[in-house]
């Protein structure tokens, strides 16, 4: 009988395209890219989409993975008593990381989509993925209860507009709360970004579903692996001590595709559009 480890089973759960995370409303700039005629610069539409996925994935990994990683490490290393504190260091650190992402994301379209998807992830955990009381052992129950309390408190901060609730921060919270390893949390986040781009291409009728699956199998896998290798050790700097050798230009987040940022910013200027962002 096949016995899946916990990480693998959680990966299967989170990779479900039916999860109500709100990602179907966002094309991550692809719709604007196609509408502005950049696909005509490539020999074929497929190659244009591959080019977009490659550039988008590269800049997304460099700008987002540091935030996912810091939040995941913060939650994973905390004990239940620290998680229970309503105004403790963990909540302050989460809010600081969230505000840093808000400040470093200049594109208002990206910020809007990120906040929509972020709060959807926390709602998904609260309503669908957190354990029912009494299912686990006492130790596990205490941690699960503390994590549920932390998620509820953070959602309250978001509703009060005291913190933005961006997708990378909420993804780090969700995957750490579910016990998914950091490396797999990073990998899955990048994979879902690439898959979302190809899903958007199908909805835009630029490629067919078979073509999207072919790209997902043969093109996306090495791209995700390469970006993860380059960016897995990046950090935001928020959690660094004064004695650490942290260099923001080397170890910190960055945008590596300014053209993509400009194109995505122009999304709302389109005469007609399928996606909200």
UniProtKB/TrEMBL annotation:
The keyword Cytoplasm does not apply. InterPro entries: UreF, UreF_sf. It holds the Pfam family UreF. It comes from the Eukaryota. Keywords: Chaperone, Nickel insertion. The keyword DNA-binding does not apply. One of its GO terms (molecular function) is nickel cation binding. Belongs to the UreF family. This is Urease accessory protein UreF.
């Amino acid at each position: 009988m096949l016995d899946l480890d916990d990480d693998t089973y959680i990966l299967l759960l989170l990779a479900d395209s039916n999860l109500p995370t709100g990602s179907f409303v966002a094309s991550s700039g692809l719709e604007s890219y196609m509408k502005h005629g950049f696909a005509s610069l490539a020999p074929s539409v497929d190659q244009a989409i591959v080019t977009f996925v490659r550039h988008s994935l590269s800049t997304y990994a460099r700008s987002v993975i540091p935030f996912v990683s810091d939040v995941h490490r913060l939650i994973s290393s905390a004990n239940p008593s620290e998680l229970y504190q309503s105004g403790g260091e963990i909540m302050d650190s989460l809010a600081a990381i969230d505000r840093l992402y808000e400040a470093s994301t200049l594109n208002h379209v990206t910020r809007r989509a990120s906040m929509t998807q972020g709060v959807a992830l926390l709602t998904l955990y609260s309503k669908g993925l957190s354990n029912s009381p009494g299912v686990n052992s006492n130790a596990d129950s205490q941690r699960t209860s503390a994590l549920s309390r932390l998620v509820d408190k953070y959602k309250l901060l978001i509703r009060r507009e005291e913190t933005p609730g961006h997708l990378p921060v909420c993804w780090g919270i969700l995957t750490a709360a579910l016990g998914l390893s950091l490396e797999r949390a990073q990998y899955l986040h990048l994979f879902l970004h690439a898959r979302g781009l190809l899903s958007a291409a199908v909805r835009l009728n630029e490629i067919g579903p078979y073509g999207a699956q072919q790209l997902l199998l043969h093109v996306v896998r090495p791209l995700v692996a390469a970006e993860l290798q380059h960016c897995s050790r990046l950090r935001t700097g928020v959690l660094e001590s004064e004695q650490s050798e942290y260099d923001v230009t080397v170890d910190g987040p960055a945008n590596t595709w300014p053209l993509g940022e400009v194109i995505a910013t122009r999304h709302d200027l389109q005469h007609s559009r399928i996606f909200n962002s």
